[in-house]
Design goal:
It is a single chain. By secondary structure, this protein is of the alpha/beta class. It has two domains: about 240 residues, no CATH class; about 50 residues. The chain has nine helices and 13 strands. The strands form three sheets. It has a seven-stranded mixed β-sheet, sandwiched between helices. Helix 1 crosses helix 2, helix 2 packs across helix 3 and helix 6 crosses helix 8. The protein binds zinc ion. The site of zinc ion (ZN) has 9 residues, from helix 9.
């Protein structure tokens, strides 16, 4: 049912539930949600309604995961720092059963069966490296749900960048956070790169029919497996280590990343040239040695084609 409120159509929880079930979200699912509340138009009950429906659809056996990123803005306090990536993310973070990982820049909040496993130990590794919350979501065969957003916020693509071991992963920034004793600590941490170029994987996913989608009010809801997203990103990277970088001329992050890729490629090329030169030098010495010892036999160019018979 659509309720007319003034000029706006108001979306209900029942409509959201029907839409999510239609694209294949169901009981027991582990789901990473990236969402824009305003993309629905207006939702009756706001972000709480969306979160309530998500938990209802996946049931107690399921696990709901959302980014609660803070990007190193201010001092990260896991119990208090609000998520800066949207109202739905913040509604999950403040849910009474939510656990939040302790990563100082890219924490996630989770509710459900695997919430403890997903959030545990995130602070001991890089934001999206092996052992991080979204790396574990990938291992748990998670689905990715996009509500009114595209791959530019599909954070699991950063996991693919880690798996590929790209040359531009090692950019770092100074971050401040509260440690378990409540003391403010300052530390240099690896900063994940820009995600504005991530929509390049859409074509690959499209060709594989990997995304199911429907409209809920004005929101385009899309569901896909985390594995299909990571595979698509790795496929794009196989041909070009710069494939996921954005084209915006003013993006300093991607400019720096390109320079890091090119420096690594130049280093590889230098090594190949040195190896080749060393090989030539080795051959020259062998030939010289043979010539001085008189052991090298010269033959006419035609000889090597002569059959022994
Ligand atoms: Zn960029």
């Amino acid at each position: 049912m659509l309720y007319v409120v003034g000029d706006n159509l108001m979306v209900t929880g029942a409509q959201i539930e029907a839409g999510l079930r239609k694209i294949g979200l169901g009981r027991g699912d582990v789901v990473v949600v990236h969402a824009s509340l305003s993309s629905f138009g207006r939702v009756k009950g706001g972000a709480q309604t969306v979160v309530g429906v998500l938990l209802e659809v996946i049931g107690a056996e399921g696990t709901l995961i959302v980014p609660t990123f803070t990007y190193g803005l201010g001092v990260f306090d896991p119990g208090a720092s609000p998520s800066v990536v949207g109202a739905i993310s913040e509604a999950v973070r403040t849910h009474p059963n939510a656990l939040r990982s302790l990563h100082p820049t890219h924490s996630v909040a989770a509710v459900g069966e695997l919430a403890d496993v997903i959030t545990d130990g995130h602070e001991k590794t890089h934001a999206f490296a092996r052992g991080s919350a979204l790396f574990k979501a990938l291992q748990a065969r998670a689905k990715i749900l996009q509500l009114g957003v595209t791959h530019t916020s599909n954070s699991i693509i950063h996991v693919a960048e880690e798996i590929a071991g790209l040359p531009y992963l090692d950019r770092s920034g100074l971050v401040r956070f509260k440690n378990p004793q409540g003391k403010v600590v300052e530390k240099w941490l690896r900063r994940p790169g820009c995600s504005q170029g991530f929509d390049v994987i859409e074509e690959i996913l499209d060709s594989q029919d990997a995304i199911r989608e429907t409209m809920i009010g004005e929101c385009r809801a899309r569901l896909m497996s985390a594995r299909s997203v990571v595979d698509a990103a790795l496929e794009a990277l196989k041909f070009d280590p710069q494939a996921l970088l954005c084209e915006r001329p003013d993006c300093e992050v991607c400019a720096q990343a390109r320079a890091m890729v090119e420096a690594t490629e130049a280093e590889k090329l230098d090594k190949e040239i040195i190896d080749l030169a060393e090989e030539e030098e080795r051959m020259r010495r062998i030939i010289e040695n043979r010539l001085s010892g008189g052991e090298v036999k010269f033959f006419d160019a035609g000889d090597e084609y002569t059959s022994p018979n």
